[in-house]
Design a protein that fits this description.
Blueprint: H1 2-13, H2 22-27, H3 34-41, H4 43-51, E1 62-67, E2 70-75, E3 78-79, H5 81-90, E4 98-103, E5 109-113, H6 114-131, E6 139-143, H7 149-160, E7 163-166, H8 173-183, E8 187-191, E9 194-196, E10 199-201, H9 203-210, E11 219-223, E12 243-245, H10 246-249, E13 262-263, E14 267-273, E15 281-286, H11 288-301, E16 309-312, H12 319-331, E17 335-339, H13 350-358, E18 362-365, H14 367-376, H15 379-382, E19 391-395, H16 401-411, E20 418-421, E21 455-458, E22 470-475, E23 485-486, H17 490-498, E24 505-513, E25 519-524, E26 528-531, E27 534-537, H18 538-546, E28 551-561, E29 565-574, H19 582-595, E30 604-607, H20 621-628, H21 643-655
Parallel strand pairs: 4-17, 6-7, 6-8, 8-11, 11-12, 16-17, 16-18, 18-19, 19-20, 29-30
Antiparallel strand pairs: 1-2, 3-13, 4-5, 9-10, 14-15, 15-23, 21-22, 22-24, 24-25, 26-27, 28-29
Helix pairs in contact: 1-16, 3-4, 5-6, 5-7, 5-12, 6-7, 8-9, 11-12, 14-16, 20-21
Bound molecules: 5'-O-[(S)-butoxy(hydroxy)phosphoryl]adenosine.
């Protein structure tokens, strides 16, 4: 390891850049840089060209209708996302091609060809229609482990025009309930449980708990994942009338179910994500633009070819799973790998064992995982033949150059282009990324906006910052996959993304451009943390903490963490009569887990008799961050009581960190 690090440092000093390998560029889907100018000259014609790669039941009349901040793409066009991901392929030689290669954490494996997928999706679409009376526009919640029934359920919803909202299986019953109620789901699709690091996650139990307060839900479909070996931990209670086993309900329905003809702007899905307030936002995506965006970017950024085996390690509960595990690759007729469990189960080489076993050619993961692999050491990688890999990608947070270099050398064998892809739940698809056959990459930079995308770095006033400077990342023209709003809340949509700069989309990220125009993303500029690639709102964690009877006040910040990018630190004042101590620390951590989910568990809880506030009563998070990261304090002149921080720092050194 020591030698490798030295090598990386030397490379960094040299200010390394990586042009596309010549043989790669020659065969790449895109290798003509002209595409950027062509797209910039007439973006609408450019995107229309791209959209013609999908199958439309009826062509659009207008490419873009833009009334800030509301975009409509491919106006009047009719299509179906499921048709594009499944039906159109079974009419070609792809009929017998593997669509989904699935591996369970316990080593089980299933392969579904496009024909298998077609059959399963048809049947489940019939279940939705015939058994539950689900119709176009109804909302359906999916809360499942990473099993093939998850994408099957998503595609079946798309097939009949139902709007799915997938909730990550790591979220608590309470978070699930909040999401179901926000968009009034009629049905919940779940499983008895899933496996994670060798233990059972009892999903159906969380569903039962959530549904005590979800009056809109009429039915529940349950996939049997755990089998019949019932123990107390796995026993699944089925409520009569409401609950149905998946394997039973698919038996007595029609084997075929037609694709609903969807308008380009009909809703495809809602996906909840954290914002800077306590309440998660329901990001709304529609059909035509979203599918065009994910279809094209999968082909360009991952250079996807007929013979590729594409593994995106994200869970379907996040947007990365929606766009690059399901809709993007399947719209391209690709073969995907889907894995249920943890990267270190049973051993730390699990990912590389999977890559070798299925001959993965394109691999897409998050920097937090890469940093864990680095720490675990190369011996786990070296056990496996990774020579089938030809392209590797990163997403979710800024990738530090050291991790980029390690990834490039040890996973990519020095030969695979690395694509660092910037995007968001809101953007629907990748917007800033190298094109692997064209772009010369620089470790740590997401490089340039894709063709047809216009991004800029601006100052507070919205003025473009000259090359070499930093500011806020904005998008200056609409793109096909952009969110169409926040479910049921057009005002909040305007306020969050458009109130700052009027006609430019405010992403909430800091960015700088170097002298050559490369974009370097610098992380969130709002009260959103990025913990192990997961987006978590400081306010949401604060609300969970003050919900506990012992807590008077709480302030939460993200502090730097070597592996996770950021870790959660909470400063808490306790009500009279409660004892601040390790017992309460543990209790508060568990309370947050129960309210939100395990991804939001605070690393540090620091008790204090007061929080540092300005004279107007605003908590000074910046100072809390300085304290948590052990830095010299920034400007403290606006503090109401300067003694508070000195005391806090002492406390932190004693208890926290
Ligand atoms: C936020 C969006 C997009 C899928 C996964 C996360 C950060 C994402 C990068 C990157 C630097 C990145 C941003 C963004 N982010 N990708 N390549 N480089 N930062 O989706 O949960 O909606 O989070 O993730 O801060 O705003 P998300």
């Amino acid at each position: 390891m020591a030698v490798e690090t030295q090598a990386i440092e030397a490379l960094l000093k040299e200010n390394r850049s990586f042009p596309p390998p010549e043989d790669f560029a020659q065969q790449a889907n895109l290798n003509d840089p002209e595409i950027y100018t062509r797209a910039a000259e007439d973006p609408e014609a450019f995107w229309a060209d791209v959209a013609r790669g999908l199958d439309w039941f009826r062509p659009w009349e207008q490419v873009l209708h833009w009334e800030v901040p509301f975009a409509k793409w491919f106006v009047g066009g009719k299509l179906n996302a499921c048709y594009n991901c499944v039906d159109r392929h079974v009419r070609t030689a792809r009929r017998n091609k593997a669509a989904i290669i699935w591996e369970g954490e316990n080593g089980e494996s299933r392969v579904l060809t496009y024909w298998d997928l077609y059959r399963e999706v048809n049947r489940f679409a019939s279940v939705l229609r015939e058994h539950f009376g689900i119709r176009k526009g109804d909302r359906v919640c999916i809360y499942m482990p990473m099993v093939p029934e998850l994408p099957i359920a998503m595609l079946a919803c798309a097939r009949i025009g139902a709007v799915h909202t997938v909730v990550f299986g790591g979220f608590s019953a309470e978070s699930l309930k909040e999401r179901i109620n926000d968009c009034q789901c009629r049905l919940v699709i779940t499983a008895d449980g899933g496996y994670r690091r060798g233990t059972v996650i009892p999903l159906k139990r969380s569903v039962d708990e959530a549904l005590q307060e979800c009056p809109s839900v009429e039915g529940v479909v349950v996939v049997r994942r755990l089998g019949l070996g019932l123990t107390d931990a796995t026993f699944t209670h089925m409520q009569e009338v409401r609950d149905h086993w998946w394997h039973r309900v698919i038996e007595d329905v029609s084997p075929r179910s037609d694709c609903e003809e969807m308008d380009s702007e009909d809703l495809l899905f809602i996906l909840y994500t954290s914002g800077s307030t306590g309440k998660p936002k329901g990001i709304v995506h529609t059909t035509g633009g979203y599918l065009t965006g994910v279809y094209a970017t999968t082909k360009w950024v991952f250079d996807l070819k007929e013979e590729d085996v594409f593994w995106c390690t994200a869970d379907c509960g996040w947007v990365t799973g929606h766009s690059y595990l399901v809709y993007g690759p399947l719209a391209n007729g690709a073969t995907i790998v889907m894995y249920e469990g943890a990267p270190d189960f049973p051993d730390r080489d699990r990912f590389w064992a999977i890559c070798e076993k299925y001959g993965v050619t394109v691999f897409y993961t998050a920097p937090t995982a890469i940093r864990a692999f680095m720490k675990w050491g190369t011996e786990h990688v070296e056990k496996h033949d990774l020579s089938t890999l030809r392209l590797i990608g990163s997403v979710g947070e800024p990738i530090n150059p050291e991790a980029w270099m390690w990834y490039h050398q040890n996973i990519g064998g020095g030969r695979c282009p690395v694509v660092d892809t910037w995007w968001q739940t809101e953007t629907g698809h990748i917007l800033i990324s190298p094109l692997p056959g064209i772009t010369t990459t620089r470790p740590g930079s997401a490089t340039f906006p894709l063709p047809g995308i216009e991004a800029d770095v601006v100052d507070e006033a919205g003025q473009s910052v000259p090359l070499g400077g930093g500011g806020y990342l904005v998008l200056k023209r609409p793109w096909p996959g952009m969110l169409r709003g926040l479910y049921g809340d057009p005002e909040r949509y305007r306020e969050v993304y458009w109130s700052r700069y009027g006609t430019m989309y405010f992403a909430g990220d800091g960015a700088k451009r170097d002298e050559d125009g490369y974009f370097w993303l610098l992380g969130r500029v709002d009260d959103v943390m990025n913990v192990a690639g997961h987006r978590i709102s400081t306010m949401e964690v604060e609300s969970a903490l003050v919900d506990h009877p012992a807590v008077a006040e709480a302030a939460v910040i993200g502090k730097h963490h070597e592996l996770k990018g950021q870790a959660i630190a909470a400063f808490v004042t306790v009500k009279d009569g409660f004892k601040a101590g390790t017992e309460l620390q543990d209790e508060l951590k568990e309370h947050v887990v129960k309210k939100i989910g395990a991804i939001s568990r605070p690393d540090d809880i620091i008790f204090t008799s007061e929080l540092p506030k300005t004279r107007s009563g605003k908590i000074m998070r910046r100072l809390l961050r300085d304290i948590a990261e052990g830095r010299a304090l920034g400007d403290t002149t606006t503090l109401a009581d300067p003694n508070v921080v000195a005391m806090l720092r002492e406390r932190y050194e004693e208890e926290g960190g």
